[in-house]
Amino acid sequence: MTASGFALDARARLLAALREHALVIGEVVLTSGAVAQYLIDAKRAILRRDGFLALGELVAAQAAACGATAVGGMTMGADPIVCAALAGGAEVKGFFVRKEVKAHGLGRRLEGPLLEPGADRCLVVEDVVTTGGSTIRAIEAVRAEGLEVVGVVAVCDRLAGGGEAIRAAAQAPYLALTTIDEIYPQRPDRA
Question: Which of 39, 72, 120, 132 has the greatest number of C-beta atoms within 10 Å?
């Protein structure tokens, strides 16, 4: 998948929002446990009107392009992306993947409308990819429910190998809407 099929204005608006609001410079520990000198906190950008609307347009277009009937991923990273896709007009069901099976209520791992094995085609979404671990766990949870993964979309890829790992795990197209090279080209660890 490439970003070339998307309306440039939506992608440009998303990128501008990420540059302005999501880049945090300073030492942080990433989800993977690695220490980095910067962080992309995508939620700071995509939970603002401009970033949310641009993201919704992009993810809705990608859901349509891959024939998805459902969009979701690991909670919390995927939550605003799912909501943006629905608000952006995606004709899909939204779902969230819990880190663990719920110990009460219905005991579900996938929350949202019921998804049907053999019928629903899932687009898995993530906010920021470094190693791909969270996204791969979401893919595994979706498949454990008997559902098909038709693609994966990330808001930003830190270009640390996670995209390749996701592509291999998903056995479906992977698309990063933006990369760290575009958001923080002067970063100290740029190869």
Answer: 72
Q: Are 165 and 136 in contact (CB under 8 A)?
A: yes
Report phi then psi at 146, rounded to 5: 80, 20
Task: Determine the structural domain holding residue 147 and report its residue range.
Answer: 3-183
Give first-to-last CA distance, the chain, whole Å.
24
Would you say residue 179 lies in a domain?
Answer: yes
Among residues 24, 72, 77, the alpha carbon closest in space to that of 46 is found at 77
Query: Any idea what the Cα angle at residue 17 is, between residues 48 and 161, rounded to 5°?
Result: 115
Would 190 be classed as within a structural domain?
Answer: no
pLDDT tens series, the chain, 191 aa? 444 455 559 999 999 999 999 999 999 988 778 888 999 999 999 999 999 999 999 999 999 999 999 999 999 999 999 999 999 999 999 999 999 876 776 768 999 999 999 999 999 999 999 999 999 999 999 999 999 999 999 999 999 999 999 999 999 999 999 999 999 999 888 76
